[in-house]
């Protein structure tokens, strides 16, 4: 894959886009990133319908991606924003391409395909406006993370994704990544045992398993808590109705009861917004649930590479052994040739010579292969370790922010509670 | 007797179990009647019922001269039965009492006796209800500690309501209840079988003919009672439901906090904030537990008491109607000249007087009761709202201290940004 040094990214007409600091989003890291050069946002969502391959009417949502270079072009004009409409499946395609192309990168995840960890009032429907809105935010987050990544941000397919609505899919398929994806999937699904795995990456894999387990546990528990809290608030709504009816028959108590009832109604209604806001917190946790999967994938890829290296090494050893046997005549290992030699007698020297040459060739090919595989393995490990370190730092920062924002949400909820019940108390005093 | 007529012994009817499965044990409103704080001497009477904000001229506020305390439940085991007695301590400066202090021991049955006598003697006064005889669900045995304590508080409250009543507190039976070491002789003086038959007859009379003319004021009263009864039952049910939901919420919180703490063990940098959040949630679940307890011990008992009051009110109305009906039956006989005249004239005049008396007693007590009800419920609701405020204040403090530990000085800045 082409990796242009970031500084030299140019527009179609060769203009050098000057780097500058842009978005203040926390996803910005060190180094020169795409995000510094252009604003990216997923601004809208729309419903579309069309007939699919089997002539059935399909309804889906498309999202508008707007990009705008931050600096004006050389002739002083502000560039107009580019905009493309993309649907979720296209994001998935992009991500799959990136995973295959950069297997040592912990790939930023997409927002969930289907609504999970849903508490009972929340819709599991993909077309639900709140779900669509949260997905919009998640997709934007994905793009921002990718565009601010030191390696990923330079990818051309990514650039085309952001700017080229028509024909992008063809470009992706032209890279031939799909074939690699299929073979990799097959390989990863096969069971294989690695003799000397990379210790560090094994630890990371173990960590990713635990991270997945703990975050999903947390999300499930949070959902149940949300469900219960919703019930508590909503039951209070009955007071308002009953107090209102009751106040009709009371002379002195009536006003106090009724006005208290109104405040309690407000209390009951407030839970909807509170829990909707909490969904954003849940989304932040979900992101890292999916990140854990991506982390695991990097480790698995290394395992696979390591396994392939061990296979190649194994193959090389066996080839060398065969060559040696043929050269010295000493049979150390079982082979059909050895048996037939014994039964039918040794072959002619010419044949032997031919076979020896073949084996020499295969051996040197094998040596090349091992060398390549070793380099691939080492490179993968090195790059993976770097990216994992970056991932870890990002994760700590993001999740700490998430926890703080959760605390702020709780504080806001408490303050609302204090307000409402103080008001209700004042009304009760008037009874 | 059929379910439609008024049963002769009304006191039993008062304590009938409610059909509703949701009914649970309740304890009396402890904020108004603290069993523990007895004045040391009759002279140093302090009104326990005075609310700080309540400027009302509650009738007994300045003149309370009798104090009763129910405490010290003790178990008694005989060959036939096991029962609990409660110590009843009275301190009074009233001249009707020979002494200024009394101590007796009474069991639940004795309270039942007292109440039924009061209702008999003052049929159109509103006598506060007793706690129920049995408990519906969730009880393994009758005499566990919670049940006894709940009942004790309720009995304490019952007696103090009598104390505060301008008429009932002067009842002979009340005096006997508070002072006699042995209630036996007093219990034998009960209304005889014939008198109970008379009640039944009156009840039959009313159900057969209905009342000729029910005075407007009592029709209005009846309507109020019907509405009030429905509303107070609903409020009671909603409160029970809230407690139930709060309990389930609290249970989930108890599962929720460990998931943060477990995750924290996996992490390094993130361990501290994760533990922080986990601890906050744990503390909030404790606060929730306390809050539930308050609801159960203060608001719910008061509401429940007034659910029972509604039944009492209905019975009072029925008794008043019966008295009127009895007069009307005799009066009609007099007017139609179908029956022998002489004694009848006098009897009818007596009954007419009785009707007047009953009506005026009820009228007076009605105002009193409305006032007391308003005060009691107001206090209970205010207390519940207060507790809710306290709950949120405590949770707020928990989360704010977490934030402080994470952010230091930037807390206020962030608060401002988040528009709190």
UniProtKB/TrEMBL annotation, chain A:
The keyword Lipid biosynthesis does not apply. This is Sorting nexin 4. GO terms for biological process: positive regulation of autophagosome assembly; protein transport. Belongs to the sorting nexin family. Residues 41-168 form the PX domain. Keywords: Protein transport, Transport. It comes from Nothobranchius furzeri (Turquoise killifish). It holds the Pfam family PX. One of its GO terms (molecular function) is phosphatidylinositol-3-phosphate binding. GO terms for cellular component: early endosome membrane; plasma membrane; SNARE complex. InterPro entries: AH/BAR_dom_sf, PX_dom, PX_dom_sf, PX_SNX4, SNX4, SNX4_BAR. The keyword Secreted does not apply.
UniProtKB/TrEMBL annotation, chain B:
The keyword Transport applies. Residues 64-185 form the PX domain. One of its GO terms (biological process) is reticulophagy. GO terms for molecular function: cysteine-type endopeptidase activity; phosphatidylinositol binding. SUPFAM superfamilies: BAR/IMD domain-like, PX domain. Residues 313-361 form a coiled coil. PROSITE patterns: PX. It comes from the Eukaryota. One of its GO terms (cellular component) is phagophore assembly site. Keywords: Coiled coil, Protein transport, Transport. InterPro entries: AH/BAR_dom_sf, PX_dom, PX_dom_sf. Pfam families: PX. Gene3D superfamilies: Arfaptin homology (AH) domain/BAR domain (1.20.1270.60), Phox-like domain (3.30.1520.10). Belongs to the sorting nexin family. PANTHER family: SORTING NEXIN-4 (PTHR45949), SORTING NEXIN-7 (PTHR45949:SF3). This is Sorting nexin 7. It comes from Nothobranchius furzeri (Turquoise killifish). The lineage of its organism: Eukaryota, Metazoa, Chordata, Craniata, Vertebrata.
């Amino acid at each position: 894959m082409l990796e242009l040094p970031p500084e030299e990214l140019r527009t179609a007409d060769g203009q050098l886009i000057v780097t500058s600091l842009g978005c203040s989003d926390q996803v910005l890291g060190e180094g020169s990133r795409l995000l510094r050069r252009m604003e990216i946002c997923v601004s809208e969502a729309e419903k579309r319908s069309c007939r699919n391959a089997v002539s059935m009417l399909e309804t889906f949502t498309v999202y508008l991606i707007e990009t705008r270079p931050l600096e004006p072009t050389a002739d002083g004009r502000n560039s107009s924003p580019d905009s493309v409409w993309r649907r979720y499946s296209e994001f998935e395609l992009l991500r799959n391409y990136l995973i295959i192309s950069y297997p040592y990168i912990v790939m930023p995840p997409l927002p969930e395909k289907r609504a999970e960890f849903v508490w009972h009032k929340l819709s599991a429907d993909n077309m639900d406006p709140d779900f669509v809105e949260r997905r919009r935010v998640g997709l934007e987050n994905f793009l921002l993370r990718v565009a601010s990544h030191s390696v990923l941000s330079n990818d051309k397919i990514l650039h085309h994704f952001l700017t080229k609505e028509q024909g992008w899919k063809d470009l992706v398929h032209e890279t031939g990544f799909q074939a690699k994806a299929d073979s990799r999937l097959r390989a990863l699904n096969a069971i294989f045992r690695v003799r000397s795995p990379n210790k560090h990456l094994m630890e990371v894999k173990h960590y990713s398993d635990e991270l997945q387990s703990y975050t999903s546990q947390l999300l499930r528990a949070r959902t149940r808590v949300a469900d219960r809290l919703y019930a508590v608030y909503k039951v209070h709504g009955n007071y308002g109705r009953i107090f209102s009816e009751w106040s009709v028959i009371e002379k002195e108590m009536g006003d106090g009861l009724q006005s208290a009832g109104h405040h309690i109604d407000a209390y009951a209604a407030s839970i909807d917004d509170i829990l909707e806001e909490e969904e954003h917190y849940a989304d932040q946790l979900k992101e890292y649930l999916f990140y854990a999967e991506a982390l695991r994938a990097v480790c698995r890829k290394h395992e696979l590479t390591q396994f392939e290296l061990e296979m190649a090494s194994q193959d090389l050893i066996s080839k060398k052994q065969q060559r040696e046997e043929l050269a010295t005549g000493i049979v150390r290992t079982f082979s059909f040739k050895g048996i037939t030699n014994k039964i039918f007698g040794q072959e002619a020297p010419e044949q032997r010579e031919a076979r020896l040459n073949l084996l020499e060739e295969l051996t040197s090919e094998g040596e090349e292969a091992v060398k390549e595989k070793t380099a691939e393995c080492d490179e993968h490990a090195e790059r993976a370790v770097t990216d994992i370190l970056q991932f870890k730092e990002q994760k700590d920062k993001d999740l700490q922010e998430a926890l703080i924002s959760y605390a702020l949400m709780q504080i806001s909820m408490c303050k609302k509670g204090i307000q409402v019940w103080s008001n209700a108390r004042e009304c009760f005093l008037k009874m | 007797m059929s379910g439609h007529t008024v049963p002769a012994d009304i006191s039993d009817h008062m304590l009938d179990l409610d059909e509703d499965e949701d009914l649970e044990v309740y304890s009396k409103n402890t904020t108004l009647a603290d069993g523990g704080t007895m004045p040391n001497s009759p002279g140093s009477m302090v009104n326990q019922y005075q609310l700080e904000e309540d400027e009302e001229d509650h009738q007994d506020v300045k003149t309370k001269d009798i104090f009763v305390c129910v405490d010290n439940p003790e178990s008694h085991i005989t060959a036939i039965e096991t029962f609990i007695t409660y110590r009843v301590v009275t301190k009074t400066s009233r001249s009707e009492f020979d002494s200024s202090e009394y101590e007796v021991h009474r069991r639940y049955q004795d309270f039942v006796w007292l109440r039924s006598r009061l209702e008999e003697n003052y049929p159109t006064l509103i006598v506060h209800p007793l706690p129920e005889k049995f408990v519906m669900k969730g009880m393994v045995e009758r005499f566990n500690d919670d049940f006894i304590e709940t009942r004790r508080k309720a009995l304490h409250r019952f007696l103090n309501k009598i104390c505060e009543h301008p008429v009932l507190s002067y009842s002979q039976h009340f005096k006997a209840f508070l002072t006699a070491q042995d209630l036996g002789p007093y219990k034998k003086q009960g209304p005889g079988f014939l008198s109970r038959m008379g009640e039944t007859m009156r009840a039959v009379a009313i159900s057969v003919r209905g009342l000729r003319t029910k005075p407007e004021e009592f029709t209005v009263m009846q309507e109020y009672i019907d509405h009030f009864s429905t509303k107070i039952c609903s409020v009671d049910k909603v409160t029970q439901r809230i407690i139930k939901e709060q309990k389930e919420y609290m249970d989930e919180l108890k599962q929720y906090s460990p998931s943060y703490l477990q995750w924290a063990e996996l992490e390094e940098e993130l361990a501290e904030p994760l533990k922080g959040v986990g601890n906050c949630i744990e503390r909030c679940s404790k606060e929730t537990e306390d809050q539930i307890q308050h609801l159960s011990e203060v608001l719910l008992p008061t509401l429940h008491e007034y659910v029972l009051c509604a039944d009492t009110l209905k019975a009072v109305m029925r008794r008043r109607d019966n008295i009127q009906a009895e007069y009307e039956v005799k009066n009609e006989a007099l007017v139609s000249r179908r029956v022998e005249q002489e004694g009848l004239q006098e009897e009818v005049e007596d009954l007419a007087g009785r009707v007047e008396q009953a009506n005026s007693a009820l009228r007076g007590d009605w105002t009193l009761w409305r006032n007391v009800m308003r005060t009691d419920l107001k206090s209970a609701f205010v207390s519940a709202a207060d507790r809710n405020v306290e709950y949120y204040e405590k949770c707020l403090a928990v989360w704010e201290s977490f934030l402080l530990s994470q952010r230091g000085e930037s807390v206020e800045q962030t608060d401002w940004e988040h528009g709190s």
